[in-house]
Amino acid sequence: MITLNSWLNSESKALDSLLLGAKVTNTPTVLKKCATGFASKEKLNVCIAMAEKSSTSGLTWLSIIASTSPFIGLFGTVVAILETFAKMGAGDAGLSVIAPAISEALVATGAGIFVAIPAYTFHLLLKRKSYEIMSVINRSADVILLNSRNSSERFDV
């Protein structure tokens, strides 16, 4: 399994090679699979779309977890507070009954926030890394197309 950092390093090295005038890079890249032979904008766009899907996989789930976990925690809090009010209505309104129930209610909220903060943080970090990868891949595609227009030779990434 390739990590986003190693993928970014690989794509950056390939872009550097292309910018220095290399026609073939030894670095494995996403575009190397697609741009062998004659490069076309359509062919490169398909590869770019596949790379974007791959680089952003899992981000939707992190976003869902980050955005819904506080609400799940809030739901637990509401249920616990409703139970507390039921106990208060039954006549057991002492602090020894209310305090533990309110404390339990706040644990649910805390748990939701405890899950949401790391999920949202990792979502943003991975989203940024994906953006960086896609930026390098798009620049590489532009260089490949520019080089293939300037040359009628075969062009391999």
Automatic annotation (TrEMBL):
Q: Which UniProt keywords apply?
A: Cell membrane, Membrane, Protein transport, Transmembrane, Transmembrane helix, Transport
Biological process GO terms, please?
Answer: protein import
Keyword rRNA-binding present in the record's keywords: the answer is no
**Family as reported in the entry's similarity comment:** Belongs to the exbB/tolQ family.
Q: Where is this protein found?
A: Cell inner membrane; Membrane
Q: Which GO terms describe its cellular component?
A: plasma membrane
Main location as per UniProt:
membrane
Q: Where are the transmembrane segments?
A: 59-82, 102-126
What membrane topology is given? Multi-pass membrane protein
Q: What is this protein called?
A: MotA/TolQ/ExbB proton channel family protein
The residue ranges of the MotA/TolQ/ExbB proton channel domain are 35-137
**What InterPro entries does the database record attribute to this sequence?**
ExbB/TolQ_transport, MotA_ExbB_proton_chnl
